[in-house]
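We now fix the convention by which a protein and its fold are recorded. The integers have meaning only within a learned vocabulary of local backbone shapes. A record is reproduced here so that you can trace the correspondence yourselves:
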Amino acid sequence: MVEWTTSPGLTPYPEAVAFMEARAARIASGEAGELVWLVEHPPLYTAGTSATPSGLVDARGFPVYQSRRGGQYTYHGPGQRVAYVMLDLNRRGRDLRAFVRRLEDWAIATLAAFNVTGMRREGRVGVWVARPDKPPLPDGSPRDDKIAAIGVRIRKWVSFHGISINVEPDLDHYAGIVPCGITGHGVTSLLDLGHTATMSDVDLALKAAFPVAFG
């Protein structure tokens, strides 16, 4: 069985990374079971393994952490639910592409609990919502806003890092980066879409949707 734990308050990012690395090592050695860890962080930016200097527009006084997860720059902060997944892919199938797809399925099923239609977009990692209420892009294509980010690291076929869902973060904080290296499209949250869900509501939806994605 997968263990679930939720940390109150704001968890410092370096402490979270240290904990995940230690837990993943223990899972790989058979000393610990799988874990989903739900946290919030203080405002910060992280740079994934594909990050480039142009992705950091203005640090705005927030700390910037180099991260070994995949992807580019992303933001974490209060009002955003981060779900760190430490799962044993030796048992769940050694297929990174399929694993990322399951993480997307998990976020999409969670959002559906709030009547939000999350979607994949070709060439863009994460989960997006269509915004027909906003002006289209300069080329005339419709605008999407990102509501859930995904970034994972695998070591000895055990995962860590995971997904984040914007519940009610300060969306202005995203102006300091090019989120995930994607320009033109925006960022949204449940609150921005008109849903006043609490973090506890989202946690319950995450737990209910987990078996849908991971069986």
Q: What stands out?
A: The CA atoms of residues 60 and 198 lie 27 Å apart. The chain has four helices and eleven strands.
